[in-house]
Amino acid sequence: MPVIKTDQFRKADVRLAEIAKAFSHPARIAILKELARRRECVCGEIVHVIPLAQSTVSQHLKELKEIGMIKGEVDGPRSCYCIDSQKMNDLTALLGDFLQTLGGGCNDKEC
User: Fold this and answer.
1) Tens of pLDDT along 35-76?
2) Where are the domains of the chain?
3) Which of 6, 9, 54, 80 is a plausible cystine mate for 41, CB 3.0–4.6 Å?
4) Confidence check: pLDDT of 94 > 80
5) Which strands form 42-43's sheet, in the order they lie side by side?
6) Can you give the chain as a three-state secondary structure string?
């Protein structure tokens, strides 16, 4: 039976890595910023503010939805998306905890 490497790490660390991967493309950052700016569900017009093909934007939306950062509904040919505020609150806490564990880094001149 194969060993799943992510099983070797804490669930919180795996989740943080998944989120970091979702943030790793500037199109996804732009999509999240646009959804946050509008503060409502956006249907279709997100394609008009991201300089990519509709299919590419859809793929990025899918990635963000799979990781739980956004919610979305498909109603026939229309898809509406908005930020999942509860997941963003969870992310803020998770990221804050992670950054606190890193502390201030090395303060010695030996580093």
Assistant:
1) 999 887 777 788 888 889 888 988 999 899 988 889 887 666
2) 9-93
3) 80
4) yes
5) 42-43, 78-83, 70-75
6) CCCCHHHHCCHHHHHHHHHHHHCCCHHHHHHHHHHHHHCCCEECHHHHCCCCCHHHHHHHHHHHHHHCCEEEEEECCEEEEEECHHHHHHHHHHHHHHHHHHCCCCCCCCC
Q: What is the pTM of this model?
A: 0.77
Structural tokens at position 6: 């992510």
Amino acid at 24: S
Question: Largest alpha-carbon pair distance within the chain?
Answer: 62
Looking at residue 76, its pLDDT comes to 66
